[in-house]
Amino acid sequence: MKFHIHTYGCQMNVRDSEAVESLLLAAGHEKAVGEDDAELVIVNSCTVRQKAEEKAVGKAGNLIAAKKLTGLMGCAVKRLGADVFKKLPKLDFAVGPRAIGLIPKILADGRFPRLELGEDMMGEALAAHTNGGFQAFVTVLVGCDNRCSYCIVPDVRGHEYSRPAREIVAEVRSLAAHGVREVCLLGQSVLRYGMRNAAWDPADAPSPGGYKEPFPRLLESIASIPGISRIRFTSAHPKGCTDELVRAYREFPQVCRHLHLPVQSGSDRILADMGRRYTRAEYLAAVKKLRDFDPEFAITTDVIVGYPGETEADFEETRSLMEEAGFDNAFVFKYSPRPGTRSASLPDDVPVAEKERRDQVLLADQELRGQRRNDALVGTVREVMVEGPSKRNKSRWSGRDGGNRIVVWDDADGVSAAVGDVVRVAIIEAHPQILVGRI
Predict the structure, then answer these.
(1) 2-123, which class in CATH?
(2) C-alpha span between 120 and 122 (Å, rounded)
(3) CATH fourth-level superfamily of 125-375
(4) pLDDT, tens digit, 9 for 90 and up, residues 189-226
């Protein structure tokens, strides 16, 4: 059967879609050229915000109307449960994020409609990859137990579970043998790897360097794998910015000097209500620790505007924190209440227009801040992993430096480079979100 997977949401969903693709190919199915060519289309859904869920459910409805065999997988399925068939009466099957390993069996059985919400039925999907490409996502931690007041992820992704280090290291070795040079380690709060509900065993990740903490030990093991030249990871929490983590950044050149460190708010009052478990001062101390080690260290973040009860003063606290932290990039989201979360019981009292205004103010601030951060890199030489032609200008090449900054350069420079190569690029021009250079 020819299949196509349509993915919404975060890197975890991208990784889940790749795993399902690998399992379907192994079961004898064929990847379609695109949606029109497919007999089966699977929509991988997100439910972090209402609009994201609506887009995925709407897409599935359009596919059903087009007479496609249609499946829905991911977080929205877990949130909706059996109600998914009330929204989509002619949906063929629906699978939660921890039951994606069952999809080939569901297709083989051919019994529709079908709902699977299994808590720990990912099975071989955790390590299933499609061959090809020089970059790969690797799941190291599944689920989340942080229970932030606004976040539905613990309900839909389940309890936190850290995979055994031996499994992860074996997976990365296999990827390296197939030409992967950069891995991105995934976890909802990845720096908590090995801390709770863990299959992690210190003996699985011996530490010649004497690291004590699980995540730095994992970084040490992966950095020793031949062929892996870059290691990234996401997403982080300031409590995980320990001295051992900074030491790992310093000692292992493969570990990229970039961290996505969601802050969500700069107001201590709002942070406490969100259940974020840090103060403004503690967050800024984590930023300082990273920047003291390397002033060019790239830090990106997530911010929510319009959280229930957020006053203008709270918002200005967020603005000032973002300026003090000097973020390289920021993703700003307008608060959206999610059913079953603690904040959903609070009045959604910031008007939509005010949420939009605050959103635009922070984005405009970040444009100026990003320009300043990138201006400081003009005249430096960056080591850039080649990703291919630029999406906006095919006469240019594009890649990312260790700080995850997009770097572009002219194809006419006369120096040959292949996708996956690491090249040195002299930066000659800066923009808020890209650097322009000469190879």
Answers:
(1) alpha beta
(2) 6
(3) tm_1862 like domain (3.80.30.20)
(4) 999 999 876 666 888 888 999 999 999 999 999 999 99
